Amino acid sequence: MTDYLVVDGLRKAFGRETAVDGISFGVEKGKILTLLGPSGCGKTTTLRCIAGLEHPDAGAIVIDGETMTSARERLFVPPERRSVGLVFQSYAVWPHMTVAQNVSYPLEVRKWPRVEVAARVERVLEMVGLSRYRDQYATKLSGGQQQRVALARALIFNPRLLLFDEPLSNLDAKLREQLRMEIVHLQREVGITSVYVTHDQAEAMVISDRIIVMNRGRIEQEGDARTIYTHPANRFVAQFIGQANLISGQVMEVDGLDGSLRVDVALGAGGRAPLRALPPGAGLQRGMRVLILIRPEDIEVGPAGATSRDNGLEGTVVSAVYMGQYLDYQVDVAGVRIRAQAKPGAPYRGGDRVALGVPPAACFCIPEESDGQ
Amino acid sequence: MFRGRAATWPGAEPVLTVGAGLLVAALVLLPVGMLLYTSLRVEEFGEAAYFSLKNYTEFVVSPRILRSIGNTLIVSTGATLLAGFFGIGLAWSHARTNTPGRRILEPFTLVPFFLSPYVGAIAWSYLAAPRVGMLNGWLRWLFGLETDPLSVYNRWGIIWVLALFFTPVMYLFVIGSLRRMDPALEESARTSGSSILQTTRRVTLPLVTPAILSGAILVFVSSAGEFGVPLALGSPFKIETMTTQIYNLTSGSAIDYNASAALSTVLAALTLTFIYIHRRVVLPRGYTTITGRGYRPSLVALGRWRYVALSFNIAYLLMAVILPLLALFLVSISIRWEGRFDPRALTLANYAYVFTYPLSARAVWNSLKLAIAGATICMTLAILVGYTIHRGRGRGRAALDVLSSVPVGFPGIVLAMGILITYIRSPLYSTLWILLIGYITRYIPYGQRMVSSVLLALSPELDQSSRTSGASWITTLRRITLPLLKPGIVAGWLLLFMIFLREFPISVLLYKGGLEVLSVAVWYFVEHEGAVRTAAVAMVQVGLLLGAIFLFRRLAGADELAV
Ligand SMILES: Nc1ncnc2c1ncn2[C@@H]1O[C@H](COP(=O)(O)OP(=O)(O)OP(=O)(O)O)[C@@H](O)[C@H]1O
Ligand SMILES: [Mg+2]
User: N or C, which end of chain B is more exposed by having fewer CB within 10 Å?
Assistant: First the structure.
């Protein structure tokens, strides 16, 4: 099936700087896709190209089978004829209008009859919980309320597409979580196809059906939250999403029976240690150089000497920080620093010798060749 | 719902913005180009014109012209120093000391900014001319002097009047900088152990220095380009400056447009150099010291000195506003003027004369017409140009930015010279249109800057969310951009209205019989009608300007003044 929104080979440069470097993706009808990436990676530019606020240098944008932008055909539909709602990080509510005037504007410019406008404004304001404020000047409201005004204004004309550009990043943590849930509910309820931009991975995981991780104007990986967390495509994704221990090594043996790998990891001062990794990354062969990803929460910390388990590593605790739900350890394993998060029950201190247990299923191999750098 | 909507006219944005851009480019480039071209031509009697640098290598360096260049440099430097003294002192006393009544004094300090320096010079001649100056009379009587102690008809007089009228320029720069300064900068000097006066000297003053330099450059450039003041106080006594010489070469017996164009080019080169230094060297050094909201810098408690500061304030207001306007008013209601106000010989006949004498009656209407039309057209262009510069996507935005600010660097008389040469053979000449073109060309930068400063403070996302809401470019302009720009538009319009109401150098160079405006009428009356009627026509202009200032404060607020 074809996607409702198709972005194909999009490229946009500002002067000599390439903000978006040939990216392609699609969003299915009714789904919400997140563009996730560090500051300056081109998320906003991508979004603005979809909305028709930027003219891309190359590529095409198709919404519901209608071509909106095509650099090759020199086709460009202006933003007002795309039916795309956009929520800005800065809210961009108009200071010279009341809440109701802000929200009714899209219907007015579409020449809706007055009665219908009033009724619909009422409904939408109710949806975002702002009925009480309808006659106040919009910029007199709090940040969270202003963002609701912006959301209502973007929703009211039943756009084909809803775009969010870091809508919550100007709000404080509590409010951010609350509004995040509200956005998810609204999006599901209205069933509107959406693209959501953020640099906050937790937000991306809560909100999206699919996530695209971007870096330097390119797509590093696309997938659902779980895949991206457990099977990152490269070093960049592994490090950007969650916390990661990455140790380089070489595949020594591929087990013919269960497909598991034996990997020699390089430690400091020429030392090596064997690790068993499960499940296997596809197509890994003997002799290949790999990065082993181990998430800190998957590591068990136990007393030294008890290395009966699989994949035991011994090291010295460098620091242990109490974080409430867990203890955050930095452990030195023969010159390699490994981070582990263990139950606060095991109270080791700096200088203690400990054994780290890493279940093979928690070791994920990333081929070095596909390293994003 | 949306696919059925009629498409908006796709050409609205490009046609309007490109059109305005090209119009501004033509308005500015044509006269500047013609000025240069003419300055390089030599037309000697009975010979075909030819290209030559003669106008520069022979005429400009002739002793007579060199003397006028020297005078321009002397009076501009003097005016800058004196205006610096007044402006810095006033700004500091208002923003950083406990001078009594500073809140009330502040708006009055700005009044000279809106009045005509030319009329100011005439008013000062009623105060301090030999024989007929009121102050001279009082001083003679007070000290039993035989001769008059004061005279404004020399370079000191020119410096004095220029300084009084350009003090607000300096004042606005300095007080703006003081107000924007983060109080934490001064507070951390205090907590580091320096006294409040040490802090003023070691922290405040260095931080304000770029603003002082900006103000000084602007005062210098304005003084060098000022035409009315040296015309009133210097020319009759053979003290010529560059501007009066440029004018002399276009009228009377010794007309030489080529020589005048060459001298104009030299003057423009001088002022543009200063503006360039300002933009390239001074502005980038400016400290951006943005403050949080609602702060109060600690004030210097002046103790008994605060009455000295108050006297300083009052002295400035007396010299710059009260005495000149009082003199003008008293002369205008006198039957005749011989240096002493005679309360038994009062009349309104001078005003009646002004409104019935065809030339002056015409001048009032012409000025009003030009001020209203000029301000409206200028602001319309400024909106389109400002929008193109800050919101457009097309090429040439940087060039348009430069083009639409460059006329600031041209003294009025210089630009008028270029416009005269450009349009003299066109049907526009000897209609009000030529004056309108002159006003708009010279003052488009003021409008543009008013619009741009508001646009810069507004997020472009406010426009963009209107587009994604489904509104076309024109609808967005009408419903979102213009309403948000309104404060800037109102302030810009009123400012231009006032400037056009008092405009003198462009008008006097471009007018023809029937096209007189207020300042031209004042000048004509000076030459032909005597003191009392001159004062009356000047008072009409002052009255209109004061009314506009009042409106300005009501509608635009004091913050918008900082042009
Ligand atoms: N209008 C512009 N002019 C020049 N450069 C721009 C412009 N807009 C974006 N860029 C540049 O393009 C690159 C990508 O910018 P973009 O705003 O798309 O990043 P982003 O992923 O949204 O970052 P952030 O998380 O900080 O918002 C940046 O390097 C930025 O400096
Ligand atoms: Mg962004």
Answer: N
User: pLDDT for B69-117, tens place per residue?
Assistant: 999 999 999 999 999 999 999 999 998 888 998 888 988 999 998 999 9
Residue B181 covered by a domain: yes
How does A128-153 read in b/e, with b if 16+ C-beta sit within 10 Å? bebeebbeebbeebeebbbbbbbbbb
> CA B483, CA A12: separation in Å to the nearest integer?
32
Q: Tell me whether residue B9 is in a domain.
A: no
Does any ligand 1 atom lie closer than 6 A to the CB of residue A43?
yes
Q: Which of A79, A90, A96 sits opposite B467 (nearest CB)?
A: A79
CA distance B172 to B390: 25
Contacting residues for B91 by C-beta, under 8 A, at least 6 apart: B170, B171, B174, B175, B178
CATH of the domain spanning A239-370: 2.40.50.140
Those residues whose C-beta lies under 8 Å from the C-beta of residue A181, and which sit 6 or more positions away, are: A206
Residues of chain A with CATH 3.40.50.300: 5-238
Are the C-beta atoms of B111 and B223 separated by less than 8 Å? no
Residue in chain A closest to B469 (alpha carbons) equals A106
Question: Which residue puts its alpha carbon closest to atom 7 of ligand 1?
Answer: A14
Which residue intervals of chain A bear CATH 2.40.50.140? Answer: 239-370
Which of A246, A247, A198 lies closest to A225, judged by CA?
A198
Q: Side chain identity at A57, as an amino acid letter?
A: D
User: What would the pLDDT profile of A306-321 be if each residue is shown by its tens digit?
Assistant: 655 567 788 899 998 8
Mind spelling out the 3-state secondary structure of A201-242?
HHHHHHHCCEEEEEECCEEEEEECHHHHHHCCCCHHHHHHCC
CATH code for the domain of B263: 1.10.3720.10
Number of domain units in chain B: 1
The answer to whether A26 and A6 are in contact (CB under 8 A) is yes
Domain contains B518 = yes
Distance CA A242, CA A204 (A): 12
- Out of A80, A84, A96, name the one closest to residue B471 (CB): A80
Per-residue DSSP letter, A98: B
Note which residues in 154-193 of chain A have CB less than 8 A from chain B: 154, 157-158
Supply the DSSP symbol for B59. Answer: I
Pairing of strands A218-223, A245-254: unpaired
Name the residue type at position A243: Q
* Residue A164 neighbours by CB distance under 10 Å: 27
How far apart are the CA of A200 and the centre of ligand 1, in A?
Answer: 17
Cα dist. A333→A289, A293, A339, B75, B203 in Å?
Answer: 20, 15, 10, 80, 54
Each as own residue / partner, the long-range contacts of residues B180-184 (CB below 8 Å, 24 or more positions apart, any chain) are B180/B289, B180/B290, B180/B291, B181/B207, B181/B208, B181/B287, B181/B289, B181/B291, B181/B297, B182/B289, B182/B290, B182/B291, B182/B292, B183/B291, B183/B295, B183/B296, B183/B297, B183/B298
* pLDDT at residue B4 greater than cutoff 50: no
- What is the structure's pLDDT at A279? 60
Mutate to test the pocket of ligand 1, among A20, A39, A45 (most ligand atoms within 8 A of CB): A45
Q: How far apart are CA A87 and CA A92, in angstroms?
A: 8
User: Would you list the DSSP string of B370-386?
Assistant: HHHHHHHHHHHHHHHHH
**Phi, psi dihedral angles at B136 (to 5 degrees):** -60, -45
**Closest to A33 in 3D by CA, of A164, A162, A209, A275:** A209
- Taking CA–CA distances from A66, the nearest residue in chain B reads B3
Nearest CA to ligand 1 atom 20: A40
| Cβ atoms A265, A247 nearer than 8 A | yes
Domain A5-238 in CATH 3.40.50.300? The answer is yes
- Predicted confidence (pLDDT) per residue in B446-492, tens digit: 999 989 988 988 889 999 999 999 999 999 999 999 999 998 899 89
